[in-house]
Design brief:
345 residues, alpha+beta, 34% helix, binds iron/sulfur cluster
């Protein structure tokens, strides 16, 4: 583990912005919230944020992406626009979500549009100083991580302790102009104390253990009234999907120009809570009822992904809970009801 003074770290970030050919992304304040965005100055970087509006998945799986361009003279050309990036300030739960996405895109159809962007990114994590009031990362075991980062920073007063997670991370540190010290026992103790204080930053109203979720969800699958009651106020807006760091569904459509001689194949984010998500030809919709869509979202978080990859696909970031207008997307609420049998169904 290395250490770097905060002033030196700021200089390092400013030098990356000025000299590194890669785009430098960092968490910044946006009105009363925070967002990952291109950095213009180290001054704008907020490593003390609680949660960002969207997770960093938008850099590997953009909201709108051209996959193929075609025209009637030249045929079809595969498109894969990759912007190499250094992304600063990713919280542990988002790093864990990215590792889950990597598995999905590697082990299913080896999606080169996603994977090339991941390979060309350097991920710099930060241990959490603050947490959203909705976050239950401690319950989900995602408040810290030992993997998924190239570098991981911990604020230890006037310095950052820097853990190196990969060769990419180590190479990035070669750009630091000041001497990087090795941490001593005192700094290691400060990192330990920082991590010891983490549990107190998260909400503590979870009654369930994440590893019970596949069984609980299996038991509740056929309880239609449970899902109908919980989904009653759902607006089918899809926000809970779109803000989630482990949701990756997309739609693909062809957009032709008016002469029909050229066009492009686009992929855009999609979400299983949207009414048209499971619509197919012949006017069939396999999940026409909002309760069925609502149930599917939870099954996918706590059961289906576990069965396929061994992961619980909720990392406890709390974004869905915070951003759902009728306040019905909170996984803790639904999982607690199952665990405690509190809704009488
Ligand atoms: S649960 Fe909330 S955020 Fe999700 S689709 Fe329904 S209304 Fe929208
Ligand atoms: S389901 Fe909600 S709390 Fe869980 S990872 Fe997705 S957005 Fe975060």
């Amino acid at each position: 583990m290395k250490e770097i003074g905060k002033a030196e770290f700021s200089n390092f970030v400013d030098e990356l912005i000025a000299d590194d050919p890669r785009e430098v992304i960092g968490v910044q304040a946006k009105s009363t919230k925070f967002a990952f965005d291109p950095l213009k100055s180290a001054e704008d970087l907020r490593l003390d944020y609680d949660v960002t509006i969207l997770p960093p998945k938008k850099y590997f799986m953009p909201q709108r992406e051209t996959l193929v361009e075609y025209n009637t003279n030249e045929g079809m050309t595969a498109v894969n626009e990759v912007t190499p990036r250094i992304i600063l300030g990713i919280h542990p739960y988002d790093l864990i979500a990215i590792q889950q996405m990597d598995k999905v895109f590697e082990e299913t159809h080896s999606d080169e549009n996603y994977l090339a962007k991941r390979r060309q990114s350097v991920l710099v994590g930060v241990n959490m100083k603050n947490a959203s009031e909705w976050s239950f990362a401690q319950t989900m075991g995602t408040a810290t991580t030992e993997s998924g980062y190239d570098l991981m920073l911990t604020d230890i007063g006037d310095k950052y302790a820097v853990e190196i997670g990969s060769v990419k991370g180590s190479k990035l540190l070669e750009n630091v102009k000041s001497e990087l010290g090795d941490v001593g026992m005192e700094e290691i103790e400060k990192v330990r104390k920082f991590k010891d204080k983490l549990p107190g930053k998260f909400r503590d109203d979870s009654a369930f253990d994440p590893f019970e979720l596949p069984r609980l969800l299996s038991e509740y699958y056929g309880k239609d009234e449970f899902w109908e009651e919980n989904a009653e106020d759902c607006l089918s807006c899809g926000t809970c999907n779109l803000v989630c760091p482990t949701c990756y569904c997309f739609d693909v459509k062809d957009v032709n120009d008016i002469t029909l001689t050229e066009g492009e194949r686009l992929r855009t984010w999609d979400g299983c809570m949207l009414e048209a998500f499971a619509e197919v030809a012949g006017d069939e919709n396999f999940r026409e009822q909002k309760a069925a869509r609502y149930r599917h979202r939870y099954m996918r978080k706590g059961r289906y992904m576990y069965n396929k990859f061994g992961d619980i696909a909720c990392v406890g970031c709390g974004r869905c809970s915070e951003q759902c207008v009728p306040d019905i997307a909170d996984p803790v609420d639904v999982f607690n009801q199952m665990k405690e049998g509190t809704n009488g169904i």
